[in-house]
Design a protein that fits this description.
By secondary structure, this protein is α/β, with parallel strands linked by helices. A hairpin with a 2-residue loop joins strand 3 and strand 4. Helix 3 crosses helix 4, helix 13 packs antiparallel against helix 17 and helix 17 packs antiparallel against helix 18. The two termini are about 25 Å apart. Bound molecules: beta-D-glucopyranuronic acid. Beta-D-glucopyranuronic acid (BDP) binds next to loops.
Length: about 675
């Protein structure tokens, strides 16, 4: 029970006959094989897989009954088969009717470097790239890539960007393209298309041109030729992802051009092959007073200037994957340009591969947020999936948490986030509770027989003593992480730039870019705490459509969750609860600590229902998380207390650390290498 099987644990399958008139294809073969491998229905049943044109079936969608899957494409048949098997295993009704994906493209972004390291990766080295033997594709590589693609397909993921957005120009060189082809060959039978992140200055850096100016004819033809070369190797290549004019990456602005000029250059190159360009909106410069406003300011004036095979890829919040952010105001604001949400599955700011944090509630919160941009009900989900604005393509991206770790994600429960991303990209109104329930059943049911030599518990027993409490734990885990790290709208107060695990509200070395240091974000001082983004401050509130702008602008109506995101308030500010801001802050930190302790107890009580191996690993992780939560609480309360000069409320557990102690520990060089 090392976790390598993910949610696809092998089950003894009953014999089944697959009937299909569809012509043989790679995808159909996979669909048949999966059915035979996992069939839990009546022995000897006939299952019919049918390709048919039908108005109700959109792109990869399918129609499901107990013994038949109908779809417009072979990929649809494969997704239908996986859904049928999932329903058999989780005891849901099989005659589910039609299911269409919310997004045409459901894509993972792997921040994998060509030397095998993974930026913000906490589960070991890259599954795609290796330092020394970079180009020798081994049988082991292939088996791993197939297992990876199978897991993707089982939750509807149909694209993989296999290298870091901080891209190397070498990515487009012959040897790396050859390996890309080898990867694409293994992913193809599971319907997963390969995409590449490209460096905008590749024409100069790799091609030896004098410039990478997007309007230069030589640059245009360089990209056209390079793209042709890629498609000659990989005919179903998906397209490019670009991080440009962002965090030191080159971009069109280096040549006095716009993001639209840059994106359109690549869009024109991939267009003849049906390719896409995902152009990231993660841009900010230290010159501006409020980082949260910059992407909107740069991209809104360009609305309507992008080709229809460009999608602007927008992180869920305006800053950077923090434990909680309001949705990015770009959602809904671009009305003539396709926009796609980017979520971070790898837990950079949410406990990495130590803390147990189920992210579906965070993504559900973002997708369900009403932007009001086209009237009430213009949720982020509907503004990005084509329901509100006409758009040729739609997509959702997740920054992957996958590495060479045996269990793929480092923390066994990190798998739940990979799973949840796929499920939400397929259905962007799915409830976190349903996702948690499915994942727990698929991942842990039947594992009890191996636990502590116990006989298998009765199903009712398992449901009551494992499934129910563990579902609650998963659903509470994200709010707990917010509570013990950045409650009430605090953000970006984590430990040093290169680490991001644990607290660091004090961190501000000399000469460091201010917008990379926590004090820029929390603004703690004797007169209060929080970033003033009201009309009297940076005015970021005005990027939101009414009634949100007014609601966020007034501390009396601003939700507590976003209070210090939008407001700088005195320590004795009276909260909706009647308590002072200082007390409320302290109580949230304390609550977070208690929640994690409760998670430990819940897990300990689940022992008879889990195999010994995963029980022990998760128990250890929770122990570390508990320590992390206490550290966050102590460090932040002691740090902020220097400014508030108020006592920690009596009901709050007294600190077990000193401020000097945590700061000294944070500054130990080894912490930066986490
Ligand atoms: C930040 C990460 C950094 C990424 C950047 C991005 O710390 O490693 O390169 O996002 O998304 O969250 O480009």
């Amino acid at each position: 029970e090392d976790g390598h099987q993910l949610w696809l644990r092998p089950h003894p399958a009953a014999p089944v006959t697959v009937v299909s008139a569809a012509k043989n294809s790679l995808l159909l073969a996979t669909a048949k094989q999966e059915l035979q491998r996992g069939w839990q229905g009546a022995a000897g049943a006939n299952v019919r897989l049918t390709i048919k044109k039908d108005k109700a079936l959109r792109n990869d969608g399918f129609r499901l009954s107990a013994t038949s899957v109908e779809a417009a494409t072979e990929a649809g048949l494969l997704y239908g088969v996986f859904e049928l098997l999932r329903r058999q295993q989780t005891g849901q009704p099989l005659a589910a009717g039609v299911s269409n994906p919310s997004y045409e493209l459901r894509v993972l972004n792997h921040w994998d470097n060509l030397d095998g390291s993974v930026e913000r990766g906490y589960a070991g080295q890259s599954i795609f790239w290796r330092k020394d033997s970079a180009f020798a594709v081994t049988a082991r590589d292939k088996a791993l890539w197939q297992a990876y693609a199978r897991a993707d397909a089982s939750v509807g993921i149909n694209g993989a960007v296999i290298n870091n957005v901080n891209s190397s120009p070498q990515m487009l060189s012959g040897p790396y393209l050859a390996r890309t082809k080898a990867i694409a060959d293994e992913l193809r039978p599971f319907g997963v298309k390969v995409f590449l992140s490209v460096k905008f200055s590749s024409p100069a850096l790799l091609g030896g041109l004098k410039t990478s100016d997007p309007l230069d004819p030589a640059v245009i033809s360089w990209w056209k030729n390079k793209t042709k070369e890629v498609y000659a190797l990989i005919p179903d290549f998906g397209g490019f992802v670009v991080k440009a004019s962002s965090e030191g990456q080159p971009g069109p602005q280096d040549y006095g051009r716009t993001h639209a000029d840059g994106a359109n250059l690549l869009a024109d190159a991939v267009r003849p092959f049906g390719g896409l360009v995902m152009w990231r909106a993660f841009v900010y410069s230290p010159a501006d007073k409020d980082r949260a406003k910059q992407a909107y300011n740069e991209f809104v004036p360009l609305d309507g200037k992008f080709r229809d095979n460009v999608i602007i890829q927008v992180k869920n919040g305006p800053i950077d994957f923090q434990p909680r952010e309001p949705f990015s105001p770009l959602f809904g604001a671009l009305k003539k340009t396709a926009v796609m949400p980017e979520f971070q599955i790898t837990q950079e700011y949410l406990g990495q591969s130590t803390d147990l944090v189920f992210l579906a509630p965070m993504w559900e919160e973002c997708l369900g947020s009403d932007t009001y941009q086209a009237g009430p009900g213009s949720t982020v989900a509907r503004c990005t999936d084509g329901s509100v604005y006409p758009q040729r393509h739609s997509a959702m991206a997740g920054v992957a948490n996958v590495g060479l770790a045996t269990n793929w994600t480092g923390q066994d429960f990190g798998q739940a986030n990979w799973y949840a991303f796929g499920r939400l990209a397929w259905n962007n109104t799915m409830k976190s509770s349903q996702i948690a329930d499915e994942w727990l059943r698929l991942t842990f049911a039947e594992s009890a027989t191996t636990a502590a030599g116990q006989p298998a518990p009765a199903a009712a027993d398992w449901n009551a003593h494992f499934l129910a409490p563990m579902t609650q734990l998963l659903l509470a885990s994200r709010e707990a992480a917010v509570n013990y790290s950045m409650p009430l709208g605090l953000h970006h107060i984590m430990s040093a730039t290169y680490d991001h695990y644990g607290p660091g509200p004090w961190w501000a070395p000399d000469k460091m870019r201010a917008d990379w240091t926590p004090p820029y974000y929390h603004q703690a001082a004797a007169n209060g705490v929080g970033f003033d983004r009201t009309t009297a401050g940076s005015n970021a509130v005005s990027q939101y459509h009414e009634p949100l702008a007014a609601q966020f602008n007034d501390p009396a109506t601003c939700p507590d969750e976003y209070l210090l995101w939008f407001h700088h308030l005195p320590w004795d500010f009276k909260m909706k609860s009647g308590r002072t801001l200082w007390d409320e802050l302290a109580l949230h930190y304390d609550l977070g600590v208690h929640q994690v302790r409760q998670f430990q107890q819940t897990w300990d009580a689940a022992r008879p229902y889990v195999d010994a191996e995963r029980f022990a690993t998760v128990q250890n992780k929770l122990r570390a998380q508990s320590g992390n939560a206490v550290l966050w609480k102590d460090a932040c309360l002691l740090y902020f207390q220097q400014f508030s000069r108020l006592p920690i409320p009596a009901s709050v557990e007294p600190p077990m650390h000193t401020l000097e102690g945590v700061i000294a520990n944070d500054q130990r060089p080894q912490r930066q290498r986490r």
